[in-house]
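Bit of a strange request maybe. I'm writing a small parser for C-alpha cell strings and I need a real example to test against, not something I typed by hand. Could someone generate the C-alpha cells for this chain?
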Amino acid sequence: MRYMQRLLICLPLAVLISLPQAASGAWPLSVDGQNLPSLAPMLKKAMPAVVNISTKTKIEIAEHPLMRDPFFRHFFEIPNAPRQRESSSLGSGVIVDAAQGYIVTNNHVIDKADEILVTLHDGRQLNAKLVGSDPESDLAVIKVQPKNLQELPVADSAQLQVGDFVVAIGNPFGLGQTVTSGIISALGRSGLGIEGYEDFIQTDASINPGNSGGALVNLRGELIGINTAILAPSGGNVGIGFAIPSKMVSDIKDTLIAHGEVKRGLLGVNIQDMTPDLAQAFGLEESQGAVVTGIQPGSPAAKAGIEPGDIVTSINGRRIRNSMDVRNAVGMLQIGDEAKVEVVRKGESETFKAEIAAPKMVKEDGRKIHPKLAGTVLENTAPSEPVEGVRIEKIHTASYAFQAGLRPGDVLVMANRRPVRDLASLRDAAQGGGEQLLLNVQRGDGAFFLMLR
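Reply from user aminoacidic:
Good idea to test on real output. This should exercise your parser:
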C-alpha cells in the first residue's frame, strides 16, 4: 500500500487533469477504489488515423561522358551497369478524409518518390498516389483506396495555448507506430529557416526522424498539427520539436486537393521588423508590427494606396508582430484573394484592400520550357544586371544540356533567333523551333551560339 501511495504522489501532472468519466470497466486498474487516469481510450480512437509511409525513389547517377561511349567501355572491359540507384525513406501521415482516402504528410517524406506505400494501423498496406505538394510549407496530400478508413477530427489551432498537453503519434526510426506526450512549449515560431513559410507549434513531446508527417493531437484526440522538424544539435531529440498548425494544414490541404499545388500571389511590399528604436521614431508605444520600406510599382499594394513608412499591424484580422508574419499571412492567400491590410500611418489607423496578384515568373524547371533543357533550373536575370535574359542557375551533369556545353551561370539571350528577355519570352521562342533549340549564350565577357538537337 505504501508503494501505491508513493506511486500516486509521483504521478506526473498530466494524469491529474480532468478527463471524462469512463464507462464501468474502462479503467483496468485502480488504487484505493480510484481509477487511474489514462490516455488509452483517446489513443484507441486516434491511432488508426495515423499511418506509416514508406517510399522508393530512383536516383540517376551522373557519369563521365566517356562512360557512355560503347567503344571506351569495351576497350577497358567496363561492364554495363545501371545508371540509377534506388533510395527509400520512412515517415508518417494522417488520414484527414476517410471517405475520399486523403492523407496529409510532409512534402519531404514523399518528395520525388516513384512509389508510395501506406501501412495502416491494422496492418493493411495500400499503394498511394500523390495528389499535390507544397515544398514551401513542407506539406503534401496523397490518396489511397477509401475502404474502412478512420479519419482524425481537426481542431482549431488558433485556440491553442502554451502549456496545453499534447500527444505526438508517428513512426520514429521505422520502429512502428509510437506515442509520446508533452506540452506546447511555444506558439508562432518562425524565422528558423526550416521551411519557406513558418508558423510552428513548438512542443517537448519527443519527435524523431520518422515522425515527420505524423499527428500532434490534443487530449480530445483532435489534430492540432503535423509534426515536421526537430532542433537536434546532437542528432537526437532534445525536447524541441515543431509542428505545422492545423489551420495552415487545412488551408493548404484544400488547395492541394483542388489544384495540386499552391499558387501564391504577390502583395508587392518590402518590409522590415519594427524595433524599439523605430517605434520611438514613429512615436509608437509598442515595438510590434512590420514597417513598409518600399512598394513595387504597379503592385496590388501600390494600387491599394499603401505607402513606405506605413506600419502593418494586421492582415485579414491576423495580428502582425514582425515581417515574417506578413510573409506567412500573404503566403496563405491565393491569386485573386482580397487582403484587408490594417496599417498605422502618422499615428492613425487606416485599412486598405488589395487584391493579391500573380507574381512574375522568376524561376522554372528547364524541362517545362523545352525537352532539350531537361536537367536545368532557369531564372530571370535581375533588372540591375548588365545582361538581360535567362540564367542557368543549376544544371545536372548527366543531362543532355550539360553534355552539349551549357554550364551554370550561362545567360540565354536569344532562342531560335528571337530575343530572350525573361522566362516567358524564352518559352515562346522555344516552342517555335520544334525539337531543335538554337541558343545564343552569354558566358562572362564572351558569347556563342549552341544548337541543341
